[in-house]
Amino acid sequence: MFQKALLTSENYAPTHLNFGSTLAETGRFSEAIHHLSIALQILPEDEMALKNLRHALREKIRINVKIQTIQNQIHLYPEDHQSHYDLAVIYKQIGKSEEAFYHFSMHYIIT
């Protein structure tokens, strides 16, 4: 729906704001940051866009730290099935299906 609206009005800040906010709610923070940044280029003082961008950036950093921590755990203890499962859940939440599938598979192979 939003993508179709963006095709007809790519410089309409509310469409980018709404799309970015929806993406952030579904855990797709990189894409959310992109659209919220565009909204702020068009309307630099939009309070909601600023708030949602701040949230998306904070969550992306938090998730990246979690991913790095779990990857380090797996590197040290490759047979730790719970780490594979936890990483798979995060990857699934952020839309990285192939990575999620791999770690779900590793979890079940090890258990």
Quick take:
The chain has a domain at 1-59: Serine Threonine Protein Phosphatase 5, Tetratricopeptide repeat (Alpha Horseshoe), CATH 1.25.40.
For this entry, give a set of tags.
111 residues, mainly alpha, Serine Threonine Protein Phosphatase 5, Tetratricopeptide repeat, 82% helix, elongated
Provide an overview of this structure:
By secondary structure, the protein is mainly alpha-helical. The protein has a domain at 1-59: Serine Threonine Protein Phosphatase 5, Tetratricopeptide repeat. The protein is 82% helix and 0% strand. The chain is built from six helices and no strands. The chain has helices at 2-8, 13-25, 29-42, 47-76, 81-93, 97-110. Helix 3 packs antiparallel against helix 4 and helix 5 packs antiparallel against helix 6 (97-110). The longest helix has 30 residues, at 47-76. The N and C termini lie far apart (41 Å). The mean pLDDT is 91.
